[in-house]
Amino acid sequence: IPTPHLTLNDGRAIPQLGLGVFLVDPAEAERIVSDALEVGYRHIDTAMIYKNEEGVGRAIANSGIPREELFITTKLWNSDQGTDSARAALDTSLSKLGLDYVDLYLIHWPAPKYGKHVESWQTLVELRSSGKARSIGVSNFMQTHLDDLAQVSDVVPVVNQVELHPAFQQRELRAFQEPRGTLTEAWGPLGQGKYELAELPGLAEIAERHGKSVQQVAIRWHLQEGIIVFPKTSKRERMIENADIFDFELSADEMATIAAADRDERVGAHPLNTD
Ligand code: NAD
């Protein structure tokens, strides 16, 4: 897969396309991630709360792929926020993954109920120095939470991973965080299958014109927008389909058509309501 790489604000490179494993059954995770690695994916997005880090780790170990060719992300769960608990949580994730380091460690949600996102960020900075997390970032942060970090720390999150798809494009948040050096990662890039991408104006026509599926068009759109994307599928054919997006390009008109299809509608949870 000829995946482009983006440069993070700490100088490291991230493959722009990966596989997400939310809702991947722990018993199936090894097979699914092994398939993805065979198909050519090198970037896997998991989280402690997905409960499948062990399967992901076994697939990595069995793949024989040199560690430095892989980009592995996991996330700090809300109830593990705080200094000692965050340190322990990363150690637990590393041991489940069978790794000495993750490429990217994210605070999964701001979880305002706990009031610990700032303290957790300072701990992630320390974990980066220790080498256990090569890069550090956040997920589901709103502008106010990013501001909270900036008040106490010079370390800018390399990414903010947020819900983002053609019906919920996050233009305002992107315009805030990207100029400050935080790249945008999309979760739910296919709308989690909760609406038909083809029902958005213009999507089906664009797909037809290029001989691609609407899902392929959506993934291609993320890449051309400069967003990092890791659609989830457990099916090998769809892993191949979702990566078969490097032989066409959306025109400026087509990008504008998709931009106009934004209806500012979430399919997932609101960051302030998740703890
Ligand atoms: P997604 O938008 O990737 O959608 C997945 C759904 O689309 C699945 O039901 C799958 O069967 C279907 N699908 C995949 N490829 C398809 C294709 N080619 N044709 C038709 N249907 C297809 O949703 P997601 O899994 O929620 O998001 C992707 C990843 O983002 C997750 O796996 C996870 O790694 C991450 N994520 C993070 C958070 C967070 O809070 N940080 C929340 C949700 C997801």
Automatic annotation (TrEMBL):
<feature type="binding site">
    <location>
        <position position="108"/>
    </location>
    <ligand>
        <name>substrate</name>
    </ligand>
</feature>
<dbReference type="InterPro" id="IPR018170">
    <property type="entry name" value="Aldo/ket_reductase_CS"/>
</dbReference>
<dbReference type="InterPro" id="IPR023210">
    <property type="entry name" value="NADP_OxRdtase_dom"/>
</dbReference>
<keyword id="KW-0521">NADP</keyword>
<protein>
    <submittedName>
        <fullName>2,5-diketo-D-gluconate reductase A</fullName>
        <ecNumber>1.1.1.346</ecNumber>
    </submittedName>
</protein>
<dbReference type="GO" id="GO:0016616">
    <property type="term" value="F:oxidoreductase activity, acting on the CH-OH group of donors, NAD or NADP as acceptor"/>
</dbReference>
<dbReference type="Pfam" id="PF00248">
    <property type="entry name" value="Aldo_ket_red"/>
</dbReference>
<feature type="site" description="Lowers pKa of active site Tyr">
    <location>
        <position position="75"/>
    </location>
</feature>
<comment type="similarity">
    <text>Belongs to the aldo/keto reductase family.</text>
</comment>
<dbReference type="InterPro" id="IPR036812">
    <property type="entry name" value="NAD(P)_OxRdtase_dom_sf"/>
</dbReference>
<dbReference type="InterPro" id="IPR020471">
    <property type="entry name" value="AKR"/>
</dbReference>
<feature type="active site" description="Proton donor">
    <location>
        <position position="50"/>
    </location>
</feature>
<keyword id="KW-0560">Oxidoreductase</keyword>
<feature type="domain" description="NADP-dependent oxidoreductase">
    <location>
        <begin position="24"/>
        <end position="262"/>
    </location>
</feature>
